[in-house]
Design a protein that fits this description.
Blueprint lengths: L3 H7 L6 H12 L5 E5 L4 E2 L6 E2 L3 E5 L4 E9 L5 H26 L12 E9 L13 E4 L12 E7 H11 L4 H10 L3 H10 L4 H11 L2 H84 L4
Parallel strand pairs: 5-6, 6-8
Antiparallel strand pairs: 1-4, 2-3, 4-5, 7-8
Length: 304
């Protein structure tokens, strides 16, 4: 279900809005209705030449904008990318609202006209950071202050590691409707499918739809070809990033060792200097003793 083409077909907000409406409502904890499907690939950040290509972008009834992303390899969608997508959604909304108000000429633009934006990411294989939280499969992020002051800063994130959800589901089973959707998206195990259909029989229609899609061999081969191409590109980039990180860590280790050696050399040099000073003091004392001894001899000598 997580292949890009299949997911977009099953969750298409134009042809089957009820599916995405329900998933978003369950995630956001409030009734959601999609009123507009927005382009996913026509927004620029500032003056940058490259475009941010998003999977599904929708505008909700309250004016909020949600971007739903499916990532089969979690390393390709880190937190930094999520932040960029969120910033892009805000900029896109700002431009649309301001342009609409200028055209209608009914009221002045106010920043209070800008509504929440949501970046929602489903991971098939989640980034390593998520695996420190094996009991949690929905992570919600938003901006808060250290003082308790509350301001509507608008940017919200949901991260759903489906691999961790599957591990939890095998221990606890499907607990609610949202679990049902996550099970539908994450598992093709026959036992999991039967358990889902026993709890929520209406998912049978979605499985039948997916089956009809899979019977279109040409369409499926196209999906697989695109997925494999993207996976190859992402894997190569991931390997480069991993190798660069290894090199950086090795360089850091070498620098730390060089610093330790330099500190030890400085300590030895300081000890040598201290010993040299002691030798000079001893030599001065020996010289004084010798002079005093010579003076005593002269005093004790006959005729003095």
């Amino acid at each position: 279900m997580l292949y890009d083409g299949i997911f977009k077909e099953l969750m298409n907000p134009e042809t089957a809005p009820e599916n995405l409406n329900e998933v978003l409502s369950l995630l956001l904890g409030k009734k959601v209705e999609i009123i507009e499907v927005m382009p996913g690939d026509n927004s620029r950040l500032g003056s940058e030449a490259s475009l941010l290509v998003m999977d599904i972008v929708v505008r909700l009834e309250d004016g909020s904008i949600a971007n739903i992303e499916i990532q089969r390899q979690g390393f390709y969608f880190p937190g930094e990318r999520s932040a960029c997508y969120s910033a892009d959604l805000l900029l896109r909304q700002y431009k649309r609202v301001r342009s609409r108000l200028e055209q209608e000429n009914t009221k002045r633009f106010s920043y209070r006209d800008i509504k929440n934006v949501y970046v929602i990411v489903f991971y098939e294989i989640s980034p390593k950071e998520f695996h420190d939280f094996q009991g949690t499969y929905i992570h919600f992020f938003h901006q808060i202050s250290d003082s308790g002051l509350r301001l509507p800063l608008l940017q919200n994130y949901y991260f759903i590691p489906l691999d961790i959800f599957k591990k939890n589901m095998h221990n606890t089973g499907i607990q609610n409707r949202l679990d049902g959707w996550l099970s539908f998206l994450s598992s093709d195990d026959p036992q999991d499918i039967l358990a889902l259909l026993e709890r929520y029989p209406d998912f049978k229609a979605l499985y039948e739809h997916a089956y009809r899609i899979c019977r279109n061999t040409e369409y499926i081969m196209g999906i697989f070809s695109d997925e494999l191409r993207m996976l190859d590109e992402n894997t190569v980039q991931y390997m480069i990033d991993e190798m660069q990180e290894t090199i950086n860590n090795q360089q850091k280790t070498l620098i730390e060792k060089d610093n330790i050696i330099a500190e030890k050399n400085n300590a030895l040099l300081e000890k040598d200097n201290a010993l040299a000073k002691k030798d000079n003091v001893i030599a001065e004392k020996d010289k004084i003793i010798a002079e005093m001894t010579e003076s005593l001899k002269k005093l004790e000598s006959p005729g003095k």
